[in-house]
Task: inverse folding
């Protein structure tokens, strides 16, 4: 509608300063319209999702129980029980307890990481069966990655953390869980470290004759 001067009035711009961002709302509602409660997956998929969930929770509970068992061994140092007798006195088996704590906590962290992405992918309708192998492998790879990255630190190969505290059971468990939760990031960091030290297959690192500094050489981009 025009005013008396024949000009259109300025358009009214709604105040959106206090409104939530659309992307935030979509994140909170998983992109579903209000009142939508039915599952997007058939029962066959829910059986598969349930199997993945059961596996991850079972592995996490078993590893946590083993960590609790090691904590009892360290704190009480009992003399009875076959397992305690095999381990012997704690000071003599300190290293074994530390590495076991790193491995078990790494598996717990990997399960936590995989469970997080399981419920996120299910809620956001991005779950698919091809990710099953990833969820089954994550706890195992996280445990191995935690142990061998800890060995790199203790041996001095990766000298960015102190070596001695890593042999304490509490520090070992905390480190293992941290590596397990961020296993993808740790693998990426180790890959970048290897690239910087050794180069790649296409572009190996060589020493220049002039400066003695490493230089890239090899195939094309």
Result:
């Amino acid at each position: 509608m025009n005013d008396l001067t024949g000009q259109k009035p300025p358009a009214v711009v709604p105040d959106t300063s206090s409104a939530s961002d659309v992307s935030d709302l979509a994140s909170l509602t998983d992109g579903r319209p209000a009142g939508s409660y039915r599952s997007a997956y058939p029962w066959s998929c829910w059986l598969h999702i349930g199997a993945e969930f059961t596996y991850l929770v079972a592995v996490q509970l078993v590893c946590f129980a083993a960590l609790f068992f090691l904590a009892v061994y360290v704190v009480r140092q009992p003399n009875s029980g076959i397992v305690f007798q095999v381990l012997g006195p704690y000071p003599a088996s300190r290293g074994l307890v530390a590495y076991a704590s790193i491995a078990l906590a790494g598996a717990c962290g990997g399960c936590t990481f995989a469970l997080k992405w399981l419920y996120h992918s299910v809620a956001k309708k991005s779950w698919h069966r091809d990710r099953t192998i990833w969820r089954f492998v994550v706890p195992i790879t996280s445990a191995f990655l935690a142990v061998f990255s800890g060995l790199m630190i203790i041996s001095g190969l990766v000298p960015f953390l102190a070596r001695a505290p890593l042999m304490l059971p509490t520090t070992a468990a905390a480190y293992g869980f941290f590596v397990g939760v961020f296993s993808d990031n740790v693998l990426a960091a180790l890959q970048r470290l290897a690239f910087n030290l050794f180069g790649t297959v296409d572009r190996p690192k060589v020493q220049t004759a002039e400066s003695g500094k490493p230089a890239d050489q090899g195939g094309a981009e």
Remarks:
- Confidence is low (pLDDT under 50) at residues 16-20, 208-212, 216-221.
